[in-house]
Every structure is written in C-alpha cells, then in structure tokens.
Amino acid sequence: MKKVLVTGAKGMLGKDLCPILEDSGYEVVETDIDTMDITDIFSVNSSIEKHKPDVVIHCAAYTNVDGAESDKDTAEKINVTGTENLAKICAKNDVELVYISTDYVFDGNKSEAYLPYDEPNPLNVYGLTKLKGEQAVQKYCEKYYIVRTSWLYGIHGKNFVETMISLAQTKKELKVVDDQIGCPTWTVELANAILKILDEYEYGIYHACGSGKTSWYGFAKKIFELEGLEVNLTPCITDEFPRPAKRPKYSVMDNGKLCRRWETALKDYLMLRV
Ligand SMILES: NC(=O)c1ccc[n+]([C@@H]2O[C@H](COP(=O)([O-])OP(=O)(O)OC[C@H]3O[C@@H](n4cnc5c(N)ncnc54)[C@H](OP(=O)(O)O)[C@@H]3O)[C@@H](O)[C@H]2O)c1
C-alpha cells in the first residue's frame, strides 16, 4: 500500500482530499502546522524520516490573496521557503512531490485557455510566491507534479459559493464582478483529479480546474439559479470594487479534460452540502 503524507490536511482542500485518498487505498498521514510546520526544515525532515511516505501532497499555503499584499514576508515564508524545505527533503529521500499551485501565476493577457507550459507572469504577491514555489519544486525534485487549480470552493473553507449563499439571506440586490473570467473548481473534483494524475500521469505540470469558463457574476448567477434564491444580480467591473491584489482578467486554464464542467460539479456540491 502506498503511503501519502498530506500537508495542509486541515485546510479546505486537505479535508476533502484525505478521505478520498484513503477510500482509494492509500495510507494517509495527515499533517498541518501543529504537526509539521513547513517553514521549519527540521520539522519537515523529522516528519518525512519518521513516516517515510512514498508521496507528499503539498496543500499547505498562505492563501489570503489580498492579505499577501501587505504581509509579503509571511506569504513568502510559507509559500516559498516552506515549499523549498519540502522539495529539498523530498528529493533527499526520493519521495514524489505533488505541489498545488494556482491560475494566479498567469497575467490574464491571453484570450484563450492557458496551457500548462505557457509563460507565467503573476500580477500579485500571492501569485508570485506560488510561482516561486513551483520553481523550487522544479529546481530540487525530479519526481514532481505541479497541479494548478483555480476559484476553489468546498464545504470545509471560506469560499465564494458560501459567501454568495449567505449574502442572499440578507440582501435582495447584489453587484458582482463580470470582467474576470476563470474556472470554478470544487475541492472534491480537484481531489479526484490529483488521484488520477498520481496514478496515471507522467511527472510534469497539469491544470486541474472545472471545464468551461465563467465570470464571478456568471458563477453567482448559477449558484442562485440552482439554489432557487431570488436575488437581483447586477454585473459590474473590477474597478468598482478595488481590492489590494490585482487579479488576472482571464485565467481560464486548459485542463486536458481532467475535470467535469464547472456547472455540473457545482450542482453536485450544492446537492451534497444540504
Ligand atoms: N482557495 C483557492 O481559491 C485556491 C485557488 C487556487 C489554488 N489554491 C491552492 O490550493 C491549495 C489548497 O488551498 P486551500 O484553499 O485548501 O487552503 P487553506 O484552506 O487556506 O488551507 C491551507 C492550510 O495550510 C496550513 N498552513 C499554513 N501555514 C502552514 C505551515 N507553516 N505549515 C503547515 N501548514 C500550514 C493552514 O493552517 P492555518 O489555517 O492554521 O493557517 C491551512 O490548514 C493551496 O496550495 C492554494 O495555494 C487555492
């Protein structure tokens, strides 16, 4: 039986990923900051030497996109130094490394879906730190998978779907940004894609996000339609809601048919969350 050590196991993705790995026959070691602080190379080293995993799936990250603009050092420490530590220790112990990355490594200037080997050019601190993490993985490891995902939602974390549903309880009118286009992705869909990549694909870079594309406005509209919520929704432009971090206008990724259409996954998520 293959042993997988998961970082960030208490996060939104980690909590859905671990039981899915177990169900498909992996022995899973769940770690988070309390058991293995990735910014401490000694902690990483002793954990890997103790558990001797075949694979590490690295989900831990500093994920506050706007927060990273004013807390660059923390974002850098977790996303870059933390990933570097894992990459070095995995390479030393001949352990495969799966690194979860983001569509925010791209600048959004393309008008068709990004391919895995398109040139990254992040617009914000979070994207830059995640890209530096990718580079560390490529520098130290030979046995690696970089899996980029986007617009993630799941039952175990703060996310756009839950925010929209809770806003609908108190507001009858909402304005949502319509000039950022991307691919919403359910954590369970991503977890299944990671499993498939691990079991069937060669080492390299992959995109695992919902198929198709939409704007945040289109995403919100679909959520309300599927939930039967009556909200007067108006599209608006990004400039109307200035945020600390700049976002790509178009971060659609070609997923090589790894995941189902985003609307289908959303329907399943909404059905299961009740
Ligand atoms: N969420 C999205 O929309 C999105 C989009 C694209 C890509 N991604 C990527 O997908 C992955 C999973 O994201 P997610 O949304 O599941 O993240 P999340 O919910 O924020 O979970 C991240 C986990 O990492 C832990 N962590 C933070 N610092 C750590 C440290 N020094 N050592 C060990 N663990 C630490 C966090 O603990 P605390 O909570 O205690 O800090 C948390 O449990 C990340 O790599 C992220 O960059 C996410």
Radius of gyration: 18 Å
Strand count, sense and closure of the main sheet? Answer: 6 strands, parallel
List low-pLDDT spans. Answer: none
Classify the fold: give the CATH topology of the largest domain.
Rossmann fold
Distance between the termini: 34 Å
* CATH class category of the largest domain: Alpha Beta
Please indicate the count of domains.
2
The small-molecule ligands in this entry are: NADP nicotinamide-adenine-dinucleotide phosphate
What structural class do helix, strand and pairing data support? alpha/beta
The strand count comes to 12
* Shape, principal axes of CA atoms: globular
Architecture (CATH level 2) name of the largest domain = 3-Layer(aba) Sandwich
Q: What's the name of the CATH homologous superfamily of the largest domain?
A: NAD(P)-binding Rossmann-like Domain
Strand content: 15-25%
Number of helices: 9
Averaged pLDDT = 97
Helix content: 40-55%
Would you write up a description of this structure?
This protein is an alpha/beta fold. The protein has two domains: 3-152 and 183-207, 3-Layer(aba) Sandwich (Rossmann fold), CATH 3.40.50.720; 160-182 and 213-252 and 261-273, UDP-galactose 4-epimerase, domain 1 (Alpha-Beta Complex), CATH 3.90.25.10. The protein has nine helices and twelve strands. It has helices spanning 12-23, 41-51, 67-70, 72-92, 125-140, 160-170, 187-200, 216-227, 262-273; strands at 3-7, 27-30, 55-58, 96-102, 144-149, 152-153, 173-177, 181-182, 185-186, 204-207, 214-215, 232-236. The longest helix has 21 residues, at 72-92. The chain starts with a strand and ends with a helix. The model has no long low-confidence stretch (mean pLDDT 97). NADP nicotinamide-adenine-dinucleotide phosphate binds at residues 7-8, 10-14, 32-33, 37-39, 59-61, 63, 78, 82, 100, 102, 130, 149-152, 157.
